[in-house]
Amino acid sequence: MNALFLILLLCVTISCKKAELKSEVILKKEISNPPVLPEDKSIRIDSTLLTSFNNKTLSAFYKSTNYRTIWQSEENRKIILEELLKSDEEGLNPEDYKVKTLSDFEKKSATLNDSDLAKYDILLTSSFQKYIIHLTNGTLNPRKLYKNWDLKENYININETLTHLLDSDSLADKIEQLKPNHIVYKRLKKALRLINTFPKDNFKTLKIAQIISPNDTTPSIIDIKKRLIYWKELQFNDSLTSIYDEETILAIEKFQNRHGLAVDAIIGPATIASLNFSKKQRMQQIIVNLERWKWYPKEMGKEYVIINIPDYRLTLVKDRDTLRTHRVIVGRAKRKTPILSSKLTQVVFNPTWTVPPTILREDVIPAILKSRSYLSESNIKVYDSNGRIVSPYEWQLSHARSYRYVQSPGTFNSLGMVKIIFPNRFSVYLHDTNHRDYFDKIDRSLSSGCVRVDDPLELTEYLLDDAVNWNLDKITEILQNEKTKFVKIKKEVSFHLLYWTAWSENNKLIFRDDIYNLDADLYTKLRN
């Protein structure tokens, strides 16, 4: 019986492992290069053929094969060619992988001489390597594009990964496992498929003289209705009237909801701006977001907090289930919230606030110059380099930037009642706010870089995960004494501050305003 139980347990374990979708990406640090063993009937490659590629990784790969061809299998060649041809489904550009030249080689493969077979083999390997890199790490490097993006690069061991794929019984399945596996990436791919089903559009730019309210009559509403019909918010009607009727009101509200606008049925500048996006622009927007998701961490963590900056939303995920969401306020365009991944480490109750340099220069010093009473009204104490308190009347503009400005804890503190810390080089964090009414705004890019969280005490209670010592009642007691207290977050919770402006839900395209104006520029860089 014991032996039978062990056999059953082993079978269950194996079947569970098979059910897991494990990434086939091999990082450089994981294992060293074993030699590649070419299949039978491989052809000798003249190493000078590799010179023109000027690619050390490619040369190292063929050195490991003892300069022999590896793509003798017609089935494997066709699997790779098909993958490269449909790389646009991943937001990539098939032209980057020499698909026309490769297809021409494949058509003639049965009649190619040894020299051309060697050339074909090298080109196929080169293109496949490039595709794997683009698929797993993106086409561009965000660290070279943006100063405030701090994402760790996944150093892919491309030749190890390629060798592993070659040794596989199912190359197509293994390639699939190279692709980002996050639900948002999959929803972006679905969004790309959805938008490709829309016909070509040739609309003229919509313009309105004033906002349009329900039941208004205006000639502009006819063109607006045509746009709503195109985006499938409104049923086609042979006779379109100029009345902003009930059916169109419902269509506008659905459109506003899909685009993160105020769902008020008022057709104003924001709604018109979203209606004016063409199919081409929306498709490009989806493509750049697919690129971004190739930059993001391969593994988000078993339990993690993720913030989508343009959606002004924090989501807490555990074991792939969404447990809670919170509205957030993020940095405005001039003081952008950075993009990063970290760990949540500490909670600070009744935090003090040390004024950062940018806010000091642009906000606090000008306010003091207008009125010295600003300091006492804002509950800010000023300290000199020796730690001595400087009174408002001793304060001197010539020393203004050498002082340290600290706002005391309390109801009026800019950080509110709680701050949640995660290590990062930008000195940003999550925090409460003394302006909670701002969460009702649609455009919530209002902060100086840090992220303000709605209902932060509920999130804090969850993160501290101690029903006895850190329930809401105990937290309230701590807050009432207005003394600063630091508490370590004991469980491991990953933290991701990310940026994406498109996805899909329930077969609907979802878009958000590109609040930092990154999309169009990124698309240009991707395709140039």
UniProtKB/TrEMBL annotation:
Q: What is this protein called?
A: Peptidoglycan-binding protein
User: Per UniProt, what is one Pfam family of this protein?
Assistant: PG_binding_1
GO BP annotation list: cell wall organization; peptidoglycan biosynthetic process; regulation of cell shape
> What family name appears in the similarity comment?
Belongs to the YkuD family.
Q: Which organism is it from?
A: Flavobacterium rhamnosiphilum
Record keyword tRNA processing present: no
Annotated InterPro entries = LD-transpeptidase_YkuD-like, LD_TPept_cat_dom, LD_TPept_scaffold_dom, Peptidoglycan-bd-like, PGBD-like_sf, PGBDSf, Transpep_catalytic_dom
Question: Keywords in UniProt for this one?
Answer: Cell shape, Cell wall biogenesis/degradation, Peptidoglycan synthesis, Transferase
Q: Which PANTHER family match?
A: BLR7131 PROTEIN, L,D-TRANSPEPTIDASE HI_1667-RELATED
Record's keyword annotation contains Lipid biosynthesis = no
Specify the superkingdom: Bacteria
